[in-house]
UniProtKB/TrEMBL annotation, chains A, B:
It is found in: Cytoplasm. GO terms for biological process: fatty acid biosynthetic process; phospholipid biosynthetic process. Catalyzes the reversible formation of acyl-phosphate (acyl-PO(4)) from acyl-[acyl-carrier-protein] (acyl-ACP). This enzyme utilizes acyl-ACP as fatty acyl donor, but not acyl-CoA. The keyword Acyltransferase applies. Its EC number is 2.3.1.274. SUPFAM superfamilies: Isocitrate/Isopropylmalate dehydrogenase-like. This is Phosphate acyltransferase. Keywords: Acyltransferase, Cytoplasm, Lipid biosynthesis, Lipid metabolism, Phospholipid biosynthesis, Phospholipid metabolism, Transferase. Pathway: Lipid metabolism; phospholipid metabolism. Homodimer. Probably interacts with PlsY. It catalyses: a fatty acyl-[ACP] + phosphate = an acyl phosphate + holo-[ACP]. InterPro entries: FA_synthesis, Phospholipid_synth_PlsX-like. One of its GO terms (molecular function) is phosphate:acyl-[acyl carrier protein] acyltransferase activity.
Length: 351, 351
């Protein structure tokens, strides 16, 4: 293995993760280096499998040895998609996932991208990288579609934490604000708490307390409570909730999208005329339903850690995995972890 | 006022509730008595407003006096849609909502239907009717669409309770099972708990405990955890969650449906051909999006009380309010509260 130590931006990839592993991750890596000349990728996984996959893409075993943008880090283990996090933590220390995280921890890579087992990735990343000073819990954040075409909305936590105390929700608000500002160039992002009503009297005590904490930090543009029906209405740039609620909301979106897709297929095949029409409208609808499964084409970021970790969907295709690599690159360039740290420290002095 | 005390089934209507009050509720009431000859309705609200609305529908003030299916119960107050429940409880004792509930409590009506303020209705119903013996909390339950055309799925709680302990979730499972069996004729309904994963290790301790309680009651067909993405997959007949999660999931459905509707409008108007084609497919899509807002056309029931209360959506039209009246009638005929009581007692002896 040759680790490229130039000024290039280096990202470690868990090549073996995801439903299809190297079949997806290797083409995405090649796409990434072709499109991003300053990017260096460390491919973590079984070296013979990786070399085979690379040679199928026209990169020989010989050329990889001195490749300016690619290097292989051999690992002997793989974290499977249904493995329990605790087991993966204990028994998979030489896995592609673990080693990709170790490389970030050791400063040999500036970020890590994996399409592997979410629970295991979260536990390992938390253990290996640790949280930023003052951050109680890291969170899983992703962007969802918006009614307005050029916009989208960040939502966290999407399932990393079952329940979150008020101060944790407050920190999620701060972290989401930094990500939206840095990655999406949104000035003064609008932060909202997901609740069962918009009125201040609604919801649990810890949500009301989180609202109070967010409104007291003057560096945060906290706009109040938002309901599930307004997630996509472009009322907020960042929506904060605990991981249980976020996971249910995200998966419910997926369920509704699937339901509408299923029912609209029936509409498109109801008679001969509709079948003919469907040829004309189907591509547009297909694109629409694709955007309704946001976590399948966007990477989700684990934020609040002392390092950048982007999670691609388990059944991501090469384009989606490439998008996750770009997301990681952007977070490195914008120094997201450092800025979260500063913002949280500012919040502490403001309160 | 003449209260009909024959063998007829009597339902009290909160005529003043909902965004449009008598404009919607009176035509629905007339539709109901025309279609249901054994139904007697007590119209609770301002008698002059009701008489005016009735006369506009061709029922004179004279004929109402001896009407076999309609009677008016004059009330001087209205609970407004944005009123706080505590205020409505204290200050609106002569409201149409409160009196409709009182009539159920006094045995003068067997059920009550309202399209009014949900929070106020829930608090008043809980206070006036009280919970069934052993029931800790009443819940709001409604049916959602399913992938399979002739099916749907019941979900509770949809927002009556912010947080629910394990035993409350267990009771919701029992109550939902009874409703699905009695109202929808589903034999041995499949009960699932909404969770952030299907694996037994997922979720909070109180959800795992509720799973244990449900699996120990042999009269309940508990099938395990279900994710948001499978709400509409016809995997379960009843989905149980706390009111916060249920409310977010339901409202997220509404949000996704609105988003898809908005985006598909853009598809249908993207060019001249699509605009012409849209005439042919639009009615089918319109129907589809309507079913995606379940609480707008179905009534939601407050179950676990010593009486039947059906909540119609605030902006329900006459057809939707009529559907809520039918739902109430069905619950009376099937003796839902009595059967919940028996089922909970059986559960206690089984455990």
């Amino acid at each position: 293995m040759s680790l490229n130590s130039s000024n290039n931006l280096t990202i470690a990839l868990d090549v073996m993760g995801g439903d299809k592993g190297p079949l997806i991750t290797i083409p995405a890596a090649i796409l990434a280096i072709n499109k991003q000349p300053n990017l260096h990728l460390i491919l973590c996984g079984d070296s013979s499998v990786i070399q085979q996959a690379l040679s199928e893409q026209g990169i020989s075993a010989e050329s990889i040895k001195n490749h300016s943008q690619l290097s292989i880090f051999h690992t002997s283990q793989v974290v499977t998609m249904d493995e329990k996090p605790a087991y993966a933590m204990r028994a998979k220390k030489d896995s592609s996932m673990r080693k990709a995280l170790d490389l970030v921890h050791e400063g040999k890579a500036q970020a890590c991208v994996s399409a592997g087992n979410t629970g295991a990735l979260f536990s390992m990343a938390h253990f290996v990288l640790k949280t930023l000073p003052g951050v109680e819990r890291p969170a899983l954040i992703s962007s969802l579609p918006s009614r307005d075409n050029d916009k989208h909305v960040f939502m966290l936590d999407l399932g990393a934490n079952v329940f979150c105390e008020s101060h944790v929700l407050y920190q999620f608000g701060v972290m989401g604000s930094v990500l939206a500002e840095q990655v999406d160039n949104i000035e003064n992002p609008r932060i909202a708490l997901l609740n069962m009503g918009e009125e201040a009297i609604k919801g649990s005590d810890h949500i009301k307390l989180a609202a109070l904490e967010l409104s007291e930090n003057k560096a945060i543009n906290y706009i109040g409570f938002i309901e599930g029906s307004d997630i996509f209405s472009n009322k907020a740039d960042v929506i904060v909730c605990d991981g249980f609620v976020g996971n249910v909301a995200l998966k419910t979106c997926e369920g509704v999208a699937r339901l509408v897709y299923h029912k609209s297929k029936a509409i498109f095949t109801q008679n001969v005329v509709a079948r003919i029409l469907s040829f004309l409208l189907k591509p547009s609808f297909k694109k629409l339903f694709k955007t309704m499964n946001p976590d399948q084409y966007n990477g989700a970021s684990l934020i609040g850690l002392r390092g950048i970790v982007v999670k691609s969907h388990g059944n991501a295709n090469s384009t989606a995995f490439y998008a996750a690599i770009l997301e990681a690159k952007k977070e490195v360039e914008r120094q997201v972890p450092e800025k979260i740290k500063v913002m949280l420290e500012q919040g502490l002095t403001h309160q």
